[in-house]
Design goal:
Strand order of the largest sheet: 1-2
Oligomer: single chain
Strand content: under 5%
Low-confidence stretches: none
Number of strands: 2
Bound molecules: zinc ion
Distance between the termini: 31 Å
Radius of gyration: 16 Å
Number of helices: 4
Mean pLDDT: 89
Structural class: mainly alpha
Length: about 140
């Protein structure tokens, strides 16, 4: 539904680019017929735009989990980036009741119906990352 073309964290070097594929929303039943409303399509497209823009300013899918902890063995790739959710340790990905409503939620963790109806928000990890990008410092003592 979208792609952060220039990659995670690319905003910092001034060449950030992402794409949203609006045609992706024309085929599933969640956006067809009586479900083809401005509210449902707008919610889904805005959620995808927010997800891709978040990648450009260094947010990772792992940040949908409030339980994400980079010090847990297996949480970080060999390049020191958070792993994609399907490769994270179970202790990080265990159900916390609400990861589907995070802006950085990704497929397998959010349904199409949730994309069409839920106004998502940033996790605490993403908020700290964005705060750091904006101010050059952390927003609280946790990071
Ligand atoms: Zn994403």
């Amino acid at each position: 539904m979208g792609d952060a073309v220039s990659g995670i964290g690319s905003y910092i070097n001034g060449s950030a680019e992402c794409e949203i594929y609006s045609g992706s929303f024309s085929k599933p039943s969640e956006w067809k017929g009586i479900n083809a409303t401005v509210e449902r399509i707008g919610e889904a497209i805005s959620g995808t735009v927010s997800n891709e823009l978040a990648h450009l300013i260094n947010c990772y899918h792992a940040y949908m989990f409030e339980t994400f902890d980079p010090t847990i063995t297996g949480a970080i790739s060999s390049e020191y980036y958070p792993k994609e959710p399907e490769y994270l340790p179970l202790s990080i990905t265990e159900w916390d009741g609400e990861y589907y409503n995070k802006i950085i939620a990704t497929q397998n963790f959010i349904t199409l119906e949730q994309r069409a109806t839920i106004n998502k928000y940033f996790s605490s990890h993403s908020i700290r990352t964005i705060s750091f990008a904006n101010s050059g410092r952390c927003c609280n003592e946790k990071c």
